[in-house]
Amino acid sequence: MRVATLNVFGAAGEWSRRRAILRAEFQRLAADLVTLQETMLEPDQAREVLGPDYRLVQSQAREDSGRGITTASRWPVGQVAELDLRVTPRTYDFACTAQLVEVLAPAPFGRVWLVHHLPDYQLDHERERVLQAVVVARAVEERLAESPGHVVLAGDLDAEPDADSLRFLTGRHVAQDMSVCYRCAWDATHPGGGGTGGDTFVPENPYCADWDWPNRRIDHILVRCGEHGGPTLRVAGCRRTFDQPDTVGSDHYGLVADLADPGADRG
After folding, report:
1. For the chain, what is the domain count?
2. Torsion angle (degrees, nearest 10) of CA 221, 225, 229, 230
3. DSSP-derived 3-state class of residue 16
4. Closest Cα to residue 189, out of 235, 154, 231, 223?
5. What residue numbers bound the domain in which 224 lies?
6. C-alpha dihedral, 258 to 261 to 266 to 267, nearest 10°
7. Alpha helices, DSSP H only, in the chain?
8. Which residues of 107-126 are buried (b: 16+ CB within 10 A; e: fewer)?
9. Quick count: other Cβ atoms within 10 Å of Cβ 14?
10. Which residues contact 151 (CB under 8 A, 6 or more apart)?
11. What string of H, E and C letters represents the secondary structure of 58-94?
12. DSSP category for residue 188
């Protein structure tokens, strides 16, 4: 199972040029599941870059500019829920949201809950991002109690690995009397963090507006851990995408992860 995530930067820049770059690279990636942030509906940017072979789930929450999030699956989609992440007054001026999408994947995977998370982006809003992560985690646990399956959480989380919201999601921080544990796909395949290779928001990107800010790893793919140990899907690989001179089409670089059934490793 291949999962990809990218913030597509809305209609900023020269969209016709960026669209061609993104479309060519997504065709090459051939991901099964995709989470796209800052997508426009007019034009339908997700459809334009992914093509006709995906089922699209578009968010209701949108910026005044029209930007929102889009979840895409090559496989059938069942239940869909959109979560309200307006957890404090400071979050009301940004369309932060999350989608829980039930993907009916073929064997050996079965049901996969694809959680597309776009929390608050402001640098000084980590408190809000923690509260939003808790809202998402609680909703996931409630869904799993009714409809068990794998859980993959992906998106532009606007937080680095050592931020409290990521520490909460990866089992290293307790928030609101709750704890969960998801495995970071990048960390699973790059022991020690892999240096700066996983940074997705960097000043050398020609589309990056924050030229004076250091490299940041804020886009993530996570897999929920099982009851007795590690992630229920083995992370077979994870790498950065849209980061070469001929593939840069956004102010973010993307990520792609290959996930496998761990049962196959056990024979």
Report:
1. 1
2. -20
3. helix
4. 235
5. 2-265
6. -110
7. 15-29, 45-50, 126-146, 164-169, 185-189, 262-265
8. eebebbbbbbbbbbbeeebb
9. 8
10. 112, 113, 115, 140, 144, 182, 223, 224, 232
11. ECCCCCCCCCEEEEEECCCEEEEEEEECCCCHHHCCC
12. H
> Among residues 240, 231, 230, which one has the least CA distance to residue 259?
231
Q: Which two tokens stand for residue 180?
A: 């969960």
Structure tokens at 151: 């859980």
CATH of residue 56: 3.60.10.10
As a residue count, the chain comes to 267
Distance CA 168, CA 127 (A): 12
The amino acid at residue 171 is G
Provide block-wise average pLDDT over 10 residues at a time, the chain (267 residues): 98 94 98 98 97 98 96 98 97 95 97 98 96 98 97 98 97 97 96 75 88 86 90 97 96 97 63
Burial class (CB in 10 A: 0-12, 13-18, 19+), 162: exposed
For the beta carbon of residue 30, count every other beta carbon within 10 angstroms.
Answer: 11
Q: Please report the pLDDT score of residue 267 as a whole number.
A: 41
Q: Are 62 and 32 in contact (CB under 8 A)?
A: no
Site of tokens 């930067």: 9
Token pair recorded at residue 37: 């942030």
